[in-house]
Structure formats: C-alpha cells, structure tokens
Design goal:
alpha+beta; Alpha-Beta Plaits; Dna Ligase, domain 1; five-stranded antiparallel beta sheet; binds magnesium ion; DNA polymerase, domain 1; five-stranded mixed beta sheet
Length: 387
C-alpha cells in the first residue's frame, strides 16, 4: 500500500485556517522576495497551473489572487507524526518516502487486519478522523504499482490494482508515468511512436534495450508491472553526513561558507556513489566553547546535487554563523532511492547539467586523487574532515 497526503502543506494551512476554504493556497517562498519556489499548492491553485517546484514569481503571475504562505514545518511534522503512528499500527514494515508519504507492506497482515482493501479503506478513514486531512491510497502487488495507483486517484483517491489486472491498469498510462522516463527519454520514445506504457510493454525486451540502452530492460520490466524491491523500513531514517573540525576556530565568514561548499561537494559525491537522494537536511554548528546547535528542514523534494545541498545548507546556517566556530557539519537524511519520481518536468535539464559537472569532478578525483581538482572557493586543506 502506498499512502500519500493530498496537497499536504496547503491542506494543513486550510485545516488551521477555515477562512481559506475554497481559496487557492500556495505554500512556499515569499513572492516579493523574487526567489525560491512553490513547496505545495492546493487543488484550487493547481487550476491556475501552479504546482510544486514552480518558481514563486511564476506562481504569482499565474495566480495573483492566491493566498501565499510561508511553510510551517514544525506544524506539518506534528501532523505527520500522527499519520505515521497510524501507519505503524498496521504493519512493522513502513518505508517513509517523505513527511507525508509512505509504503506499507501488507504481506501477512491479513490475519490481524483482514482483507487489504478493507484495511486500506479503514486507514484512509482513520487518517481523516484523526487529522481532518485527506490521503490518497494505492494498493497493488508491488511498490511501483502502488505508488502509481495512489497518484492516479488523486485527490481523495483509492485505487486498487489486483494481481490479474496489472497490465490492464498500466497499458493506457502515458509513457512519462514510468519511473526513469524524463522529458528527454519521453520525447525520444514518443518520436518512436511509443506513447503509452502498453506501447512499450508490447515491444520485445531486445528492441527495448536497443532503443533505450542501459535502461531498456528495467523500463521494459516496469512496463510489465515487474518490481521486486522490498518495502524497507528505516531507509528513511538513515542519513549521510560530513563534518569539518577546524584546526583553529574560524571567524572569517567566507571561510565558513566555503567550508559548507566543500562539505556539500563531499556529500553529493557520496550520495551519487550510493545512488540516493534525501529530503531532510541538517546543519550542525559548534562554536568555540563547545556549544553546539543544529538546524534542520525537510524539503518538499529530495536533493542530491552539491548545488542543492549547498543552497539549503547556507539557508539554514547563515543566520547562525556569527562568531567563532569550531566545527561545521551537514547531514542528509530521509533518504530515498528514486530521484524525484514525482518531480515535475521543470528543472530537470538544469539538474542534469549540474549532475554531469559533478560526475566529471568524481571522475577526475578518482583518477588523479582528491586534491587534483576542487572548487576555487573550497581550497582549505588543513582541517579535519569526518564522514
Ligand atoms: Mg503528498
């Protein structure tokens, strides 16, 4: 079962402010700042073409009468905790994907909870009664199908894909629905007359490989609804972190920022090696005198590139960087394997450019050593760095 709250941040805002009922609500950056993106838009706002990750200025242009709000993460977390409590009461195998979304393995829960479909309905009802918010549910033989199913019914969705109905469910879907089919691959496939998942599933695996190269077999399998990844609890809690202890406490602001950049580069390299992405970022700052603080945020979309990590780390750290600092660290947690399976098309090309650049950095460092190349603003070498 995959459960995903509908327009979560915006729905929480509407829950807390009944005066927002029926209005387009857009949670994200301040449109007056001219920078930043939409974190969440409710369905009223989506009618105007506003969606998450859209630059906030464009959101404002498309929907100037919308209610623009800054995110209140602690409140979202409060409600998220209640929702996850319900998840954990159903099964010990809960895999969080983000603050408002999880896979739940129902294998073997039958004796305790009865029919999975009935259990899904009950869960949806309990979420509504407990939080006042609506979740969409997908139930299917595997993770890939369950995730598509919950999304397919949104908002207020409840979609069951039975074992013997998998191909019928998949065939009519747009090819872009398959994980791993971005705008570029999607366009190429459409140019070859492959518009739906069914079109791909009717190819032989050999011709899929010929057309799609390395990804051919995987995509062909997905097109047949084959996905054997287990629901893995805990993967959302694990994290990757990097920190630097300065040999001499640092007061120079540029040095602090360049250290964040270097840590971001290192983290991004490790995340690439593990093929993972994370939604929660935490910065750790230890001042001279050993007072240590952390600042954390859970993002609407998973990140993995150095640029993204650096931008978010700076945002969290900047207000706290005054004074003499002994240690800086960054941690990425809430990890997931699939990059932005729900990333909108926007921004992908830019992302790919950054990724290619960072991959080139990896290659050079692998061949010629860590010191062979690094960013011009991160050249300090005498500090102690820990993973
Ligand atoms: Mg959601």
């Amino acid at each position: 079962m995959h459960i995903d709250m509908d327009a979560f941040f915006a729905a929480v805002e509407q829950l807390d402010r009944p005066d927002l009922a029926g209005k387009p609500v857009i949670v994200g950056a301040d449109p007056k700042s001219g920078r930043g993106v939409v974190s969440a838009a409710n369905y009223e706002a989506r009618k105007y073409g506003v969606h998450s990750a859209l630059p906030i200025t464009q959101a404002f242009a498309r929907c100037p009468h919308g209610v623009f709000l800054r995110p209140r993460y602690s409140r979202y977390k409060e409600i998220s905790d209640k929702v996850f409590e319900i998840f954990h009461s159903i099964s010990s195998l809960v895999e969080p994907l983000s603050i408002d979304e999880a896979f739940i393995d129902l294998t073997g829960t039958g004796r305790l909870h009865g029919d999975p479909v009935e259990l899904g309905r009950k869960t949806k009802r309990r979420i509504l009664e407990t939080t006042g918010l609506v979740a969409s549910v997908g139930i299917a033989p595997n993770k890939f199908l369950a995730k598509i199913a919950s999304d397919f019914g949104k908002p207020d969705g409840f979609v069951v894909v039975p074992e013997d109905g998998v191909q019928d469910f998949l065939d009519p879907l747009d090819i872009g629905r398959l994980w791993g089919v971005g705008p570029k691959t999607g366009k190429m496939l459409i140019d070859h007359g492959i518009r739906t998942v069914g079109d791909l599933s009717r190819m032989t695996v050999e011709s899929a490989k010929k057309l799609l190269g390395d990804h051919g077999e995987g995509l062909w399998k997905l097109a047949h609804g084959i996905d054997s990844r287990p629901v893995s609890p805990g993967s959302g809690r694990k994290g990757i972190s990097k920190e630097t202890t300065f040999r001499v406490d640092v007061t120079d602001n540029n040095r602090k920022i360049s250290t964040l950049r270097r840590l971001s580069d290192g983290l991004a390299a490790r995340m690439r090696a593990k093929k993972t992405f994370g939604r929660t970022i935490t910065v750790k700052i230890r001042y001279s005198g050993f007072i240590t603080i952390t600042r954390s945020d859970t993002l609407d979309m998973p990140i993995a590139t150095s640029d993204d990590i650096f931008r978010e780390a700076q945002r969290l750290a900047r207000p706290e960087l005054e004074g003499s600092i002994r240690l800086l660290g960054i941690r990425i947690s809430n990890l997931t394997g699939e990059e932005g399976e729900q990333l909108p098309l926007f921004g992908r090309e830019e992302r790919n450019k950054t990724k290619n650049f960072e991959r080139a950095l990896d290659d050079i460092q692998k061949r010629f050593g860590k010191d062979a190349i690094s960013r011009a603003n991160s050249l300090e070498k005498d500090d102690i760095e820990d993973d």
